[in-house]
Design brief:
Strand content: under 5%
Number of strands: 0
Structural class: mainly alpha
Order of helices and strands: HHHHHHHHHHHHHHHHHHHHH
Largest sheet: none
CATH class: Mainly Alpha
Bound molecules: beta-D-glucopyranose
CATH topology: Growth Hormone, Chain: A
Oligomer: single chain
Distance between the termini: 13 Å
Helix content: over 70%
Number of helices: 21
Length: 483
């Protein structure tokens, strides 16, 4: 690589890393609440259902945030929307931390949720539009990497501030979120708008200038020519109507579908269930919870780093098939681990870590990457917000139905739960069976992926657009030139 190419690469890596702080906030603010909740509950003397409301309001905020800002991102630009989310993240962290009453805590969690929903699609969208084609996958995966770092940081912040003699220790846990929010806010002020959005608004000069700083010189002219072609084909500002048109049907199925499989293989229930699994492997009480969060968190971060190196080499399809096959096999083993308590406990722990590793190299980063790749510029904001919205909706649905599924299986077996026990104490097979349901979903995901996962590696965003316009199938997409 010559000096100029190296310089160009470091510029985009810095840009992408600053923007990816939005991922850190996503991971941190969704993760931090679990350690804060026991203190919040004691401090405000909340009932369990009030606790559920506080947690759920954050998620509802994320859904609302993703739902209403997709079009705004297409109108106002990517940068302004990310800046606005950074302001909400910073003020939301202070507001939730200071909340004097329960209603204020709920409203402030909802407010913070809005920023989570907005940043979860606008940040990967921003990176994907500013990234050079060759390393677009790697750069967008930085977003997922920072989500996993955020989850780990939330856990560490919870641990650092948890103090049983101080009922208000939840406040500093939440204040910590201000730091990454300020990094995002200050950093974004200095970052440019994406060349693609500028060009789509007719600001060609500036768009070209920014693109010249980031894109490969060999690809520069092609990309600009393709952007112009795309703009010439359709000058209208498109919206909801456009996105439901037949030529974009596959893009929509891909965005919603990949988020369906990302969530319905049960990632958040596995993370949620990890302390129990460690408990069954012989770790004790609090020790089990700590071991689970640290080990799961670290494996998650490490394997997301692996994905950065392979996503633009192996390509999206290969990574998807390797990852989802591994996820299915690991889920089958986890189910088995529950069926064979005693002998199966270490088997269970290892299968769970293997599961996390396969998720981290595939569905984790691929979900957020693909939703930003499959839509044309004019509706890319709206399209990826629909992907993000699906993610939050499915996430809520899976977590909400997990215990219901396990108890339905328990009821069918006439399991009676004695006082002070939980279902998995008396019926581990009930929980194990749910992991088999997730495994079945993963297997269906393999078939779905064969038809719908497009190989976007090395393909410019404009070529993807042209592919849909030509009415071609997702699996027929491939790069058109050697790079
Ligand atoms: C998912 C989250 C999940 C996280 C785990 C993300 O891609 O969207 O639901 O908790 O990965 O690393």
């Amino acid at each position: 690589m010559n000096e100029k190419a190296k310089h160009r690469k470091s510029v985009v890596v810095v840009i992408a890393s600053i923007a990816a702080t939005g991922g850190l906030l996503f991971g941190f603010d969704t993760g931090v609440i679990s350690g804060a909740i026991p203190f919040i509950q004691d401090y405000f003397e909340l009932t369990d259902s009030q606790v559920e409301n506080v947690t759920a309001l954050g998620l509802i905020g994320a859904v609302v945030g993703a739902l209403f800002t997709g079009r705004i991102t297409d109108y106002l630009g990517r940068k302004k929307v990310i800046l606005a989310s950074a302001v909400i993240f910073a003020t939301g962290a202070i507001w939730t931390g200071m909340a004097p009453t329960v209603p204020q805590l709920m409203i402030s969690r909802f407010y913070l949720g809005l920023a989570i929903g907005v940043s979860s699609f606008s940040v990967p969208l921003y990176i994907s539009e500013i990234a050079p084609t060759k390393i677009r996958g790697t750069l967008v995966s930085l977003f997922q990497l920072l989500i996993t770092v955020g989850i780990l940081a939330a856990y560490l912040s919870d641990r650092a501030f948890a103090d049983n003699s101080n009922l208000e220790s939840w406040r500093p846990m939440l204040y910590v979120g201000v730091v990454p929010a300020l990094i995002l806010l200050i950093g974004m002020i200095f970052l440019p708008e994406t060349p693609r959005w500028l060009m789509s608004k007719g600001r060609e000069e500036l768009g070209r200038k920014i693109l010249a700083r980031t894109e490969d010189p060999e690809l520069l002219d092609t990309v600009i020519a393709e952007m112009k072609k795309e703009i010439a084909i359709d000058k209208r500002q498109a919206g909801w109507k456009e996105i439901f048109k037949p030529w974009l049907r596959n893009a929509l199925i891909i965005a919603v579908g990949i988020m369906f499989f990302q969530q319905f293989v049960g990632i958040n229930t596995v993370i949620y269930y990890s302390p129990k699994i460690f408990l069954s492997a012989g770790f004790e009480g609090a020790e089990a919870a700590i071991a689970a969060s640290v080990i799961v968190g670290v494996v998650n971060v490490l394997f997301t780093i692996v994905s950065l190196f392979v996503i633009d080499r192996l390509g999206r399809r290969k990574l998807y098939f390797i990852g989802v096959s591994g996820i299915a096999a690991a889920l089958i083993c986890m189910g088995l681990g529950f069926m064979l308590p005693g002998a199966g406990k270490w088997f269970l722990v290892i299968s769970m870590l293997v599961y996390i590793a396969f998720f981290a190299i595939s569905l984790g980063p691929l979900g957020w990457l693909i939703i930003t790749e499959v839509f044309p510029t004019r509706v890319r904001g709206l399209g990826s917000s629909i992907g993000s919205l699906s993610n939050w909706g499915f996430n809520t649905l899976v977590v909400w139905t997990f215990f219901k599924m396990a108890s339905a299986i328990g009821n069918a077996k006439d399991v009676v739960i004695p006082e002070g026990k939980v279902l998995s104490d008396v019926c581990p097979t009930c929980v194990g069976s749910v992991f088999w349901i997730f495994a079945a979903v993963a297997l269906i995901g393999l078939v779905w992926g064969y038809y719908f996962i497009p190989e976007t590696k090395g393909v410019t965003l404009e070529e993807i657009d042209a592919h849909w316009r030509a009415g071609k199938k997702p699996r027929e997409l491939k790069k058109q030139r050697e790079m």
